[in-house]
Amino acid sequence: MGLTGRFAALAMLVVLSLSTAIGCSGNRDYDEEVRDAFLTNCEYAGSSPSVCIGALECIEERLTQSDFEYEENKLLLTGELSERMVEVTARCLNR
User: Fold this and answer.
1) Cα(65)–Cα(3) distance, rounded to whole angstroms?
2) Is the pLDDT of residue 6 over 70?
3) Fewest 10 Å CB contacts: which of 6, 61, 85, 89?
4) Domain residues for 72?
5) Is residue 45 classed as helix, strand or coil in its secondary structure?
């Protein structure tokens, strides 16, 4: 899958994961429900478990769960990723 396809898939995973389980946490380890939803949706989208875990850990290193939820809400409202989420997604895809 090319970078554009992987970027779109990760963006959709953000939406699907948080739409499935919304929690609130200020630490870098997301609530179990959010983690499980992300991993389930990531694997359903066709990525391997190791790729999904790596992507989630990368996002957790860069965004608190509250920030992750904010980005998801912004995406749902505007239909676009913020510059911050574009940067995080690109960094996580290029690890």
Assistant:
1) 25
2) no
3) 61
4) 3-93
5) coil
pTM over 0.85: no
Total count of domains within the chain: 1
- Which token pair is 72? 């998801």
Find, among 44, 73, 42, the residue nearest to 58 by Cα.
42
* Confidence at residue 22, expressed as pLDDT on a 0 to 100 scale: 38
> Contact at 8 Å (CB) between 25 and 69?
no
How far apart CA 35 and CA 1 sit, in angstroms, is: 23
In angstroms, the CA 45 to CA 10 distance is 9
Joined together, the tokens standing for residue 23 give 């929690």
| Residue 49 confidence (pLDDT) | 94
For 36-91, the pLDDT digits (tens) are 988 998 899 899 999 989 989 999 999 999 998 899 889 889 999 899 999 998 88
Q: How would you class 23 by CB atoms within 10 Å of its CB: exposed for 0-12, middle for 13-18, buried for 19 or more?
A: middle
Angle at 10 between CA 54 and CA 74, to 5 degrees: 120
